[in-house]
Amino acid sequence: MSEEEEEKKEVNINEEKQISSESTEQITVPETSEPVKVADATDVPASAEAEEDEVDELTGIEEASEQEIFQKVTKKETRKKRKKRSERGQDKGKEASEWIEKVVQIRRVTKVVKGGKKLSFRAVVVVGNAKGQVGVGVGKALEVISAIQKAVVDAKKNLIPIPLINSTIPHQILGRAGAAKVLLKPAREGTGIKAGGAARTVLELGGVGDILSKSLGSRSPLNVARATLNGLTKLRQFGGVAQLRGMTLKEMIAAN
Hints:
single chain; alpha+beta; four-stranded mixed beta sheet; 7 helices
């Protein structure tokens, strides 16, 4: 081989080496000081986050609307319940308005016990409907209000009917209770109630409009009230007495 051919081969070899070195430089990754970020499954794009925020806002609006609906429904139910309670209260008020309650006496009572004296209150109450029914009750408690309530309950348990002729009693009667005596006499229309103290209260709430009375003996309000009540329980109508005698009403009146 000649020298020229050898030089050509060397040039070709050098060119091939240069081409191979350039290709390797293009493939290799340049070393940098910044760390390479690796994509994780937790990384979410900004568009996805925005969509989630919109969904959350929508769900919040839906929840708020449901709460508002629930509040409206509950308000309607409470209004209905309040109406029912008010109706019940009105019914109770109507029932309670039929009965009139009057306190006759309140006394402080002392009871001697081992440790000393025990104080309590005694209330005497008259209950009536002014239509021929009346009762007297007594209640004892440590407080005045509870004593009155107990007396009202006791009076309603012991109601008695009063046989009336128009606005007065059918005949004269004497009532007794302990050392108290109360004389009751019928009176003409327009006379009014000629009585005082506890006897007047019992006669008014019983519905008696015209009567004469006189208290004999003890003046204790409780005994006077009980004596008046005792006299009213002894009253009898003419028709019932005629039946007991086996006579008509006209025959009994003519015989007398």
